[in-house]
């Protein structure tokens, strides 16, 4: 059965390879594109190339972060789920993903899949309208790294119990039907959330809320592990992963300024400050509850701060980022405690940390966003400045995105399960996914 299921993706990959040969790919820029390319700035381009590499590094960082938290017999499988996302989504993005997210808008809901199919017109196209100083190819590759890490984030929710082949199918469906539409709604100038005035600087809505709600759907649909008690396999792995994530997040957020200027510096500062505040708040709050300040707690807190500042990074001041990190850390900490008292088996608390962290960040953007920080903010100042339009716009968008991401992900989980069973057998689960799925051990 496993061998039969492997034939289909192999044939699909072979077909894509053939398509890449027969489709025209030699750059042939139009006069209009050549004229637009005169605005390309080498400093901005260099920063975005570096930022793209930094964001890609976050996915191996996530592999270490998650891999250190699971039980010792599931370390390899958990880490591989992040690494395989780099391969799967990279191919999918070239074929159709970039087109769906940033292609010619169809009603503000999705991009025309033929716009950049097989990266047609990407190497020789005019720069993206909101990134006029960098080549279109650099913008496309920068956005690819966001598309890679989003489904990888979900893996923490169903760790230690998902079949590898089913996971690959799910992330393909999720990327096409959940991630790409959200990216189009939020970041495309014709997207309906963009036109509403929703501010999401680097992916609090598109990345973290979508992954968080998908994680909750997965935890509910797949139910709990047979033995939900486990000891983290390697806390130093978690520390290493946190360091890689924190470093890469500067590319994630400061890179989303789409240039090497003052806005990038602002996003860099808010990112670091919010993460620091959240890490401290987590361990101090744990101490108040009678717990010892742990490495795991500090790492989780730091990541929650990074999540929460993501939508706000280029719209708020550095002092305000302290409050954003602080509040997000407390709220996520409380939700983690609540989740632990329920039967919900979100293995690595993806929803409490990424989903809730992303929602807190979206709300706090509506509170602290300041037009003086970023002239691209045409919606208005946040609630803290006495204006209400942005805040209520974000509350409306929060409901829309939550319903779409949760409901859509639940449907995709069911569809995946019908095609290829999601869960390993009880025997495979007890043996551990490293051996049962991959024939390897730590």
What does this 3D model show about the protein?
It contains 16 helices and 2 strands. It has a single domain (2-24, 42-424), classed as Ammonium transporter fold. It is mostly helical and 442 residues long. 67% of the residues lie in helices and 1% in strands. The mean pLDDT is 96. Helix 9 runs parallel beside helix 11 (295-309) and helix 11 packs across helix 13. Strands 1-2 form a two-stranded antiparallel ribbon.
CATH topology type: Ammonium transporter fold
**Oligomer status:** single chain
Largest sheet, in brief, is:
2 strands, antiparallel
- The coarse silhouette is globular
Structural class: mainly alpha
Poorly predicted residue ranges: none
Regarding CATH, which class? Answer: Mainly Alpha
Specify Rg, calculated over alpha carbons: 21 Å
Strand arrangement, major sheet: 1-2
- Count of strand segments: 2
